[in-house]
Design goal:
Layout lengths: L7 H11 L6 E5 L12 E2 L9 E2 L3 E4 L8 E7 L12 E5 L11 E4 L3 E4 L2 E4 L9 E2 L10 E3 L7 H9 L4 E5 L3 E7 L3 E2 L10 E2 L1 H12 L3 E8 L3 H14 L2 E5 L10 H8 L1 E6 L2 E2 L3 E7 L2 E6 L3 H20 L9 E4 L11 E8 L5 E3 L9 H5 L2 E5 L10 E6 H4 L2
Parallel strand pairs: 5-6, 13-16, 13-17, 14-15, 17-21, 19-23
Antiparallel strand pairs: 1-12, 2-11, 3-10, 4-6, 4-7, 5-9, 8-9, 18-20, 20-21, 22-26, 23-24, 23-25, 25-26
The protein binds adenosine monophosphate (AMP) and magnesium ion.
């Protein structure tokens, strides 16, 4: 590897070794907990289902009785409880209704013939058929949700299914964003020659929202030491983590490095990755600072590779690593970079991956076209048909 460059894994390990879950935990209504990170494991205080119940609309019977026509002695709807089943009788029963004591099977109504208050069973049932057993889903005392999980809609549904009304979650992470560059203007403003639109603001704001951060957006900051220091001080006071784009190279007009050094501590890294390279990591007061390169593809990729896991760990998420897929490359990549590459690729119709035609890190189009990133080892030429390590956006946004 090029001397002076830090590997992606080493940089990430250094960052993660400093990250700690936020100390503050709050109880929120289960109804509003989707997207939040669970701070303590949740156990069920009840059996699910709480009683044996019917998995079908039909008749609850004694298997031993089912050869002869049975008198239908009761009707049991979901939400009601039946009486003990007398020998020689059947109970009309509906899905979810409790099995009456004495019954040992349910016959689905399609296999019966009703005639007045009598029912004939056309197909003899097996013992236990169409009965959902008490506690077969969840036993009382079992853990239903692990600490450190970001709650999906089905998780809050599961919590509610055992009667949990509020959930302890980590406080939302306050993420500060600002964008350095005298050339930046916002869409809607006139684009004078030499100016460019501040696309990073949109990409990074969207990413921050995808990870359920509470965003403080400090907007465009001009390329001056004073302006950069001032917004940095303010953002550090108000946020847990401050992420910026641009100004991390070490050219004239790059003020992030001296500003962070003046206000806090900074590590400046050149990372052995493409796109990416310059990355700043440090702290200002109690806030962490991560300075991403200004190049739109680089800031997008470095957010997903470095900021994402750092934010997740700070948010209290325990399962951080994106799960990669081994996927077939339907292309050749004969001239790899000596650095580890994150190539923009997408699924074709044949279950393989194709590559965006230009991997130039200034081409933001590639990120929108793609379904994810191929994590290609340094200097590795890809040959058509080989399996590559694919990080789908669905994993990187998780
Ligand atoms: P820098 O890292 O500040 O040297 O910026 C690298 C490249 O990214 C330059 O071409 C900048 O114009 C561009 N750039 C910087 N910030 C942004 C931004 N917020 N949105 C879009 N492009 C940017
Ligand atoms: Mg700049």
């Amino acid at each position: 590897m090029n001397p002076g460059l830090l590997s992606v894994d080493d940089a990430l390990a250094q960052m993660l070794s400093r990250a700690r879950p936020l100390a503050d935990v709050e109880d929120v209504p289960t109804l509003e907990a989707t997207g939040r990170v669970l701070a303590r494991a949740q156990r069920s205080t009840m059996d699910v289902p709480p009683l044996d119940n019917s998995a079908m609309d039909g008749y609850a019977v004694r298997v031993a009785d089912a050869q002869k026509p049975l008198r239908v002695a009761q009707r049991i709807m979901a939400g009601s409880v039946g009486k003990p089943l007398e020998p020689g009788t059947a109970a009309r029963i509906f899905t979810g209704a409790p099995i009456p004591p004495g019954a040992d099977a349910v016959v689905m109504q399609e296999h019966t013939k009703a005639d007045g208050d009598r029912v004939t069973i056309n197909r003899p049932p097996q013992p236990g058929e169409w009965i959902r057993r008490v506690a077969s889903d969840i036993a009382k005392g079992a853990e239903i949700l692990a600490a450190g999980k970001r709650l999906a809609p089905q998780d809050t549904g599961l919590a509610a299914s055992v009667g949990i009304r509020t959930l302890p979650v980590y406080r939302r992470l306050r993420l500060g964003l600002f964008f350095t560059g005298d050339e930046l203007v916002m869409p809607g403003e006139p684009l004078a020659p030499g100016r460019i639109y501040n696309s990073n603001r949109f990409t990074l704001r969207g990413l921050a929202a995808a990870f359920d951060c509470e965003v403080r957006d400090y907007g465009i900051v001009p390329d001056s030491l004073e302006a950069t220091r001032e917004v940095l001080r303010r953002a550090a006071r108000e946020c847990d983590v401050v992420v910026t784009s641009g100004g991390v190279s070490v050219g004239e007009g790059d003020f992030v490095k001296p500003a962070v050094e003046a206000e806090g501590q900074l590590l400046m890294w050149r990372i052995a990755m493409k796109p990416g390279r310059p990355l700043a990591f440090g702290n200002v007061g109690s806030a962490f600072f991560i300075g991403l390169p200004g190049n739109p593809v680089s800031s997008f990729v470095t957010f997903l590779i470095f900021v994402r896991p750092f934010l997740l760990k700070t948010q209290g998420v325990t399962d951080i690593a994106p799960r990669a897929i081994a996927a077939r490359a339907d292309f050749d990549w004969p001239e790899p970079d000596p650095r580890r590459e994150f190539l923009r690729a997408r699924w074709n119709g044949e279950g393989g991956l194709e590559l965006y035609p230009t991997q130039d890190s200034a081409v933001l189009t590639s990120t929108a076209w793609a379904d994810g990133l191929i994590d290609n080892p340094a200097a590795h030429a890809i040959r058509k048909g080989e399996n590559v390590r694919f990080l789908p956006y669905s994993e990187l946004y998780r």
